[in-house]
Write a structure and sequence with these properties.
By secondary structure, this protein is mainly α. It is built from nine helices and no strands. The protein has helices at residues 2-20, 25-49, 61-71, 80-100, 105-122, 129-139, 142-145, 150-170, 183-200. α4 (80-100) runs antiparallel to α8 (150-170) and α5 packs antiparallel against α6 (129-139). The chain is globular. 34% of the residues are buried.
């Protein structure tokens, strides 16, 4: 029954969000460190490659993604497929809508967000900050809007990959943290780590 499935998913999400908000200073430390390094790396690359006035690397939706991938790591919306896929789908949608309706903001802005939501749902990559990624392609600075489809690769894909790599490192630093929540990934990761240790010994 679809209603039972919705209720089950709601209960699961509610439990995950409750668990993520419990006072646990170790968890808060790793969430802080991961988000600090993830956003910090992007800011560093920004400062070294572009003028400060052209803040292309640091789009606002990455801040929202950081809350999910470092602060709510067990949420289905935080998983790598959602993080990467959601941003990419939304970026493509945003740029495409901007090309077809560049000067009609009251049409292009809602179209970009609405289409990105539907396509993320259809591709099972729902990631709430993706809506902002689509919107930024419409209302961003002239530097961003002039990128066209390059926006999908830079800053979106490059930034998302930085967030993901940092999340894979810092969200697995302790036994209590496990990211992503896909068991096969952790089995493979442990095998590689064991082989690496055996080769060193």
């Amino acid at each position: 029954m679809p209603i039972e499935k919705i209720k089950r998913n709601y209960r699961k999400t509610k439990y995950i969000l409750y668990k993520e908000t419990l006072i646990d200073f170790k968890e808060h430390f790793w969430a802080f460190l991961g988000s600090f390094i993830g956003i910090g790396l992007m800011a560093y690359l920004q400062s070294k490659t572009l003028l400060h006035s052209d803040v292309v690397f640091l789009i606002g939706s990455f801040g929202a993604s950081s809350v999910l991938v470092y602060g709510a790591i067990q949420s289905p919306l935080s998983q790598p497929r959602n993080l990467v896929g959601g941003h990419l789908v939304s970026a493509i949608v945003g740029v495409t809508v901007a090309k077809f309706a560049p000067d009609i903001l009251w049409i292009s802005a809602p179209l970009a967000v609405s289409f990105s939501i539907v396509l993320m749902q259809a591709t099972k990559t729902l990631h709430p900050p993706g809506g902002a990624t689509a919107l930024i392609a419409i209302i961003g600075s002239p530097k961003i809007t002039s990128l066209g489809y390059w926006y999908v690769l830079y800053p979106v894909l490059s930034g998302v990959l930085i967030l993901l790599v940092v999340a894979l490192i810092f969200n697995n630093m302790t036994a209590n943290r496990s990211y992503p929540n896909h068991k096969k990934y952790h089995i493979i990761r442990k095998r590689i780590a064991n082989k690496f240790r055996n080769s060193l010994s």
